[in-house]
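Sanity check

After download, print the first record. It should look like this:
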Amino acid sequence: MKIVLIADTFPPLRTSGAVQLRDLSREFVRQGHSLTVMLPTSGMDEPWALEDFDGVQVLRLRAPRTKDINYVQRTLGEFFMPFAMLRNLRKSPLSEGNWDGVVWYAPSIFFGPIASALKKASGCRSYLIIRDIFPEWAVDMGLMGRGLPYRFFSAVANYQYSVADVIGIQTPGNAVYFDDWQKKDDRSLEVLQNWLADAPAGHCSVNLAKTSLAGRKVFVYAGNMGVAQGMDILLDLAEELRNREDIGFLFVGRGSDAQKLAADAKRRNLENVLFHDEIDPDEIPGLYAQCDVGLVALHPRHRTHNIPGKFLTYMQSGLPVLAKINEGNDLVNLIRDERVGAVVTDNSVDLLKRTAESLVEQCDQDGELPSRCRVVYERLFSPEMAVKQIVNALEK
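Expected structure tokens:
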């Protein structure tokens, strides 16, 4: 098939979304499909730029800035983004492109207009890959009420949904948000698991043997550190375990709370905690090869269901997980049913401490634990399965 994929993140960015879309794009090509990725890009001198990425055609289209700016500027930038992309697409060599399928990735919720235009021009089916339910999660977190901003973002999201023939959600628990959308006969909702390409452990710029965590059982967190993660309790856990000289905590990444957390750890004199800046995604397997347990954190106010990309990387590397997540999240049963770690859903630091210590003991005693993690990755989270599922939905 000749497919266009619209997204706002892709290499050289290092976000989990960029890594996911890199792996998905490579798999489309590996399975013999022709893929074009369309990306909004700020700061370009020209209206468009065409690149090749491992056999994928990447079209960057000049658009307003939407990253690392205040919320008002970001909202305005994202609102005008699809219209700027369409205007500059018409100036590009792909202006008359004809597609067998339109796929787009949310976040962002603002791609509806360009997805609709491409779908109508080609008379093809469309597939929305939705990885978070915005603005619902922002309301759950207390970042937004149900006033005018909420109604605006809901209208934008609902328009985006209306463009899609098929929506792929992360987990079954998110289906409740699409009850009204599904009432039309020609629409289909399905679970599209997250995916991650297999990668061998190689070089990593972080060498734990040369740090204060050398010789310890290391709990690692690699990824975004922001409001949605609610990570303060992980520092509380580290403080509770500060007298365990055999246990350490490593936090790698960036985000709105990263500096605050690092400063807090320093203020508490937590010698069992180490912070490190974001590293290249290709170094992650090499990092995890030096660690023992992967940490997952989601703020307890969340009501939507979310299987973070970092969970996939832990499973891929054979790392059991210690998850501090919201009650009722589909990830709770997945971890427990597959026996690939431990989960805490309330805010008891004492319970989290006891659970962490128990998991360390299990790592020493259960030799099959790493292989169970790998089996979960191979069965549920391969890009091969994701591409086949998307293509099958577009061909109907």
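If your output differs, re-run the checksum step. Summary of this record's structure: DSSP finds 13 helices and 14 strands in the chain.
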